[in-house]
Amino acid sequence: MNRRNWLALAAALIGVGVLAAGPAQAQGVVKVGVLEAMTGQQQSTGKQTLAAMRLYMQQHGDTVAGKKIELVVKDDAAVPENTKRLAQELIVRDKVNFLVGFAITPTALAVAPLATEAKVPLIVANAGTSIITERSPYITRTSFTLPQSSTIIAEWALKNGVKKVVSIVSDYAPGVDAEKSFNETFANGGGQVLEALRVPLAAPDFAPFLQRARDANPDAVFIFVPSGQGATFVKQFIERGLDKAGIKLIGPGDVTDDDQLNGMGDQVIGTVTAHLYSADHDSKLNKEFVAAFKKANDGMRPNFMAVGGYDAMALIYAALKKTNGDTDGDKLMAAIKGMAWESPRGPISIDPETRDIVQNIYIRKVEKKNGELYNVEFQTFDAVKDPGKAKKAPGN
Ligand code: PHB
Questions:
Q1: Which of 84, 170, 217, 228 gives 20 to 30 Å between its CA and that of 211?
Q2: What is the distance in A from the centroid of ligand 1 to the CA of 235?
Q3: In 3D, which of 302, 307, 243 has the Cα closest to residue 271?
Q4: Could you identify the atom of ligand 1 that is nearest to the CA of residue 132?
Q5: pTM, 2 dp
Q6: What is the pLDDT of residues 86-119, one digit of tens each?
Q7: Three-state secondary structure call for residue 205
Q8: C-alpha 164: how far from its chain's center?
Q9: What is the pLDDT of residues 291-339, one digit of tens each?
Q10: Ligand 1 pocket, 105 CB below 6 A?
């Protein structure tokens, strides 16, 4: 064929859509756009999540239902304007079939309208504010919600001699969710909330808040800080002598993050939290996951963010198997709803009504095992739905 004939053929094919820009361009490839914080204050979340996504692909192969899976990774540094701009690029230029990641709530919220407009499934692997999944019918979640663990630690505290608390939370959406769900549950059960304190998210100095908490003389401080800030908080808690004053530390398990726990010192032993994942979780799958993750990442211990990333890949693989490799956004969302599988954290599923995650929440206590600090699970609440949604009418 000469050049002119080639051009004529190309024009004809474009006319029938075969060469048109769009998913048809790459029939055999499924592109997963990853929007993560690889730099900045939340970079440990990006590092953990991406490492786990890569591990999943290494363990399960990079081909599903005849399609090759390709990650397209963008660093948003957890700045929502970046996330929005990069998501636009991923949708328009890279023509991704999924959007995954979202180290903090504001980055997920920034992209929700784009997911709806482009009909691209968006999987929240990290962020934990209840409302996120309500912002688009194309959003689902493999992380957690703050009310899932905060209500459960409130019940535990009421049953275990905690009568007065001061709550301290990061001053943004998930902190407000944690504060509201803990304080309401605790007060409804007869507990007393002495003060509800909020600390800036960026570069926080906890000392003045801890001093106020100490002065109020509570039985316990309820704390929510996002993954990555736990070590700083615990250090200041100990420096201010709250542990010596007999004040307990309780909260969702973000504070005793597996990523930092080992460096927190023995003063943290005995801290009780409620959470979805511990690297110490006792299952065959988790033992294999932890060993493989450490091996692939210079001994780094996986945390709850890693598990969110691992399960995001598991969900993508399972959805594609179910659609036979069809990447239509509506078909993928239909496949995702009701999906159930075993995660390194235990059994999980996607609520078909809310598209949010249903998972076990474990009560854990920090203990030393073989010379290392772990969150050791001692009580399980099975198949917990997001209490932030359970109160509303079905479908919302
Ligand atoms: C969030 O921004 O939603 C978020 C981030 C880190 C956490 C929990 C929640 O550990």
A1: 228
A2: 20
A3: 243
A4: 3
A5: 0.93
A6: 999 999 999 999 999 999 999 999 999 999 999 9
A7: coil
A8: 30
A9: 999 999 999 999 999 999 999 999 999 999 999 999 999 999 999 999 9
A10: yes
